[in-house]
Amino acid sequence: MNPLFSTRTLTLMSAGIAFNMVLGQLASMLKLPIFLDAIGTFVVALLAGPLAALVTGVATNLIWGVLTSPVAAAFAPVAGVIGLVAGLCARAGGFRSLPRVLLSALLVTVAVVVVATPIRAYLFGGATGSGADFFVAYLNAVGSKLIESVALTVFGVNLADKVVSALLAWTLVRALPARLSATFPAAAAVR
Amino acid sequence: MHPFTGFALLPPLLLLTLRLTDARALAALLVVLLVLVWMGGEHRVRLRRWALLMLPLAAGLWLVHGRYLDSLVFGADVADRPQRLYAAALLWLRVGCLLAGAQVALRLAPPARLTRALFASRLPPSVAYLLASPLLLSVQLRRRLAEVTEAQRARGVDPAAPWPQRARTLIALAGPLVVWTLSDVGERANALDARAFRSVPCRTTLDAPAFTARDRALLAAALAAFVLVAGSWLWR
Amino acid sequence: MAEPVLSFEQVGYGWDGAPPLLASLSLTVAAGECVALVGANGAGKSTLLRLACGLLAPSDGRVSAGGLDTRLARPSALARVAGMMFQEAERQLCCGRVRDEVAFAPRLGGLSATEVKRRTARALEATALASHADAHPFDLNAGERRLLTLAALIAQDVPLMLLDEPTRDFDAVQLALFEAWLAREKSAGRAILLISHDYDFVARNCPRVLHLAGGGVIADGPPEQVLHDPALQGDSPGAAPTLPALCRAIGLPPTTDAACFDAAWRVACERRAALSKSRGEA
Amino acid sequence: MALIRFAQASLTRAGATAPCLSCIDFALPAGQTLAVVGGSGSGKSTLAGWLAGWVPHALPATEAGVAEFDGAPLSGALPAVRAGQVQLVQGNPYAALTGCAFTVYDEVAFGPENLGLCEEEIRARCREALALCDAEALAVRAPSTLSGGEAQRVALACALAMRPRLLLLDEAFNRLTPAAADRLLERLRVLPMLTLVLFEKSFERAAGADLMLWLDGGVQRACAEAGVLFDRVLPALTASDAVRAAWRSRAADLWRDGVAAPCSAADALTRFAEVADG
To answer: Where's the ABC transporter domain (chain C) (predicted)?
Structure first.
């Protein structure tokens, strides 16, 4: 019987979780307006496909929820969607060139807005303690409803974040030693 | 005490925080939990971690729900500010309680024992591995970072350099760490395969953390609390 | 005598809570010297190298490399004076391409692009890695990876080189390449301090050997004299360095030089042939 | 019957056109020792991975010809399934650490635990493996703090705890002192029911094996006893100065017919004396 994930995919997912957590922690410590907590998920999406990336994303936020912040656990569905959409984009050739990577990042962002906005608006009243709260407050002040302000902010912040993350992950995977990338038969084309 | 027992207290806690709608009651709960955190080991780190997350969240909630920008910049009518802020405070207290509760649960589960418990649990080995991986990797990453820092210092990277050079330093240190973590994926998979990882469905675990009568009692208490809180909610 | 490139003055060092690893150790290495450091596992050889390039600060005494007190100098200044090859090559590699890895230290040192390029090309040529310049360091085999760390060190261009087990991963061809480089550097006046368990290699290349034991240098002299210590030799009869041992066993003048041995052996063989021939005639 | 059998076997890496290993042709009976020798990049580690059952999961490649372990094809099975039979110890000992353990003892026990053995059996195996590798004192240490030599002892102990029938040692002792390496190898050689394959670039470490297989550029050049191959393989391998002197002497025709080539530095001393006296 073949297991769902090969051992290789499993260790890759564990490395992906580690990346997500280390970088996400760094971004939140430095109070950056972006999260940087999906780079590992993107790397897994590129090398092992949508399902592995989905699990990586969800696992990251669940573990995070227990270890440091319950806020992260609430956003686990978002992390999963990022992995799923990024993996599907990668499989469809969305990481073959720079313009395609940017388009993939946009698609991921749209998916994130759909899932994250309700969570952020209803569970946390629009605030999560990051630099982006200021924008929510500002937009809210200009006169939009809370949910609209949140959606707009989520879109803006995530677009920046996902573009940076996708580009970083893409560069990383392109620069991998050939000996390693050859052992991922399901890896998406990156050039 | 079994490392998992602490986490069993989280669901009733979650339910309880949702059930309590009075800020004073929530605040009292929060104080109790924070005192519990303070009484445990490593309380300095844990309390700092708590504060690092909760203080910015407070600022964010205050900014968004106080609608200070509205009134200051646009002169909007914010007569409902107290109600809004009260709701935000409730939310903040709930998150704070959960975070403090998680810290209490973690105190009861040191990484080595938690990993062992995960591998000994009924979870499939692959799931146990994924859940344990941050615990396992954080030790190795820290060790590895020390090695990388040493090697790069020998080549002239100054970890205590002034700011303009700091970015360069960061790249020089983060680069090898990332390359290593990814290159290590293959080696680690080979090592796991070589040790017959997942080759039989049921693995043995030496010195598996025992599930004692006390754990059972606590688990029962947690379940009872859960039922109690849920029941009281439904009753009303 | 000129200022030594490396000097230890009454140096003591110990890890926290453990008995001191090194105690009142003094030594100097001059320009153009190639010195080998030998001793049992855990004698403190690697620690001594780390002290020499300032990665560790001595708890007593003073270490100076290229005239800099390692305790006071900044890493960037020390990196212009002393370079280190670590025992595990994988731990110091940080770039995605061989070329960038070699150029790392010169770039960090703020050299001009042309100078970096020149040094990189020279180092890659000296280590026969030019054809792998665009490969990923982790795609190289163990010997090539070790050569890559050597190339990075060559490009760093420091007067004092500290090598921890440099020959372990080399095959015969790579070893010959390395020894040729070593000979050139010695005559060019570079100071080299290396750790090796290969006593034949030490005897061939290092005119001076330090035996580290019990927290200090217990012997300092030519390889044959120092390596003869029973503490360094296993219980096998083929005591290293093996060539002088062989010479003694068959009654030739002891040497560590292969050409000298070959010449002496040829003479011995011819003399014996002539002798048996004259016996036959008689 | 041979435990390992290769007949005109070759291996081609995925994406490559030319094979990375070819003309592999030998049979190794159970309980014997084979030494695979060659320089850097000669394909030793690839052959080691192939024997360890890495093809095609960990080593994406296709094989041609016959490559069998115990009568069954070498490749195709999941690597974890073969772990109880075949163990590979690599030159980089840190690659053997799973990272799933916080002490050396747990690391050694991890393999037998995965086999689902009973606790006493696991403890017995750990005790035995650590003792054989002189690593008892390391048992309580954290695996990531081990030095190279220590990690190599632990890596070997981890492999032995799986009680393999075939043990592959890919320059597994290169961080130990020569004396320590010889001592360990001697202990392994007398273990009953264990077939050893060494992968070496040092002639002397390889010369003690029953059979020597010479790889050059991924091609099997020869497979015979060490003494027979001596004159051909030595230029490609590392060796002590005394053994190399013997090679030069034989090449220069300053050797006596009937005196065999030396297999070690100590051996060289007596052989040279034979040539000189006889």
So the answer is: 6-239
Domain that holds residue B174: 123-194
- Give the total number of structural domains in chain B: 2
Q: Give per-residue burial for C120-150: e unless 16+ CB within 10 Å, then b.
A: bbebbebbebeebbebbbbebbbbbbbbbbb
Query: Is the same domain home to D172 and D77?
Result: yes
Q: What is the pTM of this model?
A: 0.91
D202 and D138 share one domain: no
Tens of pLDDT, residues D161-194: 999 999 999 999 999 888 889 899 999 999 988 9
Searching chain A, which residue's CA lies closest to the CA of residue B196?
A: A7
Pair B166, B62 in one domain:
no
What CATH number has the domain bearing residue D188? 3.40.50.300
Element (H, E) at D53: none
Would you call A176 an interface residue with chain C, using a CB distance cutoff of 8 Å? Answer: yes
Instruction: Check if D97 contacts B (Cβ < 8 Å).
Output: yes
Q: How far apart are CA D237 and CA A84, in angstroms?
A: 51
Residue in chain A nearest D100 by alpha carbon: A11
* B146-188 residue pLDDT tens: 888 888 888 888 777 676 666 667 777 777 788 778 888 888 9
Q: Would the CB atoms of B154 and C108 count as touching at under 8 Å? A: no
Residues of C in contact with D245 (CB under 8 A): 243, 246, 258, 261-262, 265
A69–B99 C-beta distance less than 8 A: yes
Distance of CA C134 to the CA centre of its chain: 28
- A169 vs chain C: nearest CA distance in angstroms? 14
Annotated domain spans of chain A = 7-123+161-181
CB distance C275 to D276 below 8 Å: no
Calculate ∠ Cα B42-B206-B188, nearest 5°. Answer: 75
Q: Mark which residues 6-65 of D lie under 8 Å from B by CB.
A: 52, 54, 57-58
Q: Tell me which DSSP letter residue C104 carries.
A: H
Q: Does B150 touch chain C (CB under 8 A)?
A: yes
Determine contact: B18 vs chain A, CB below 8 A.
no
Choosing from D128, D163, D198, the residue where a domain stops is D163
What is the CATH number assigned to the segment(s) A7-123+161-181?
1.10.1760
Instruction: Give the ipTM.
Output: 0.89
Residues of chain A positioned with their CB less than 8 A from the CB of C96: 175
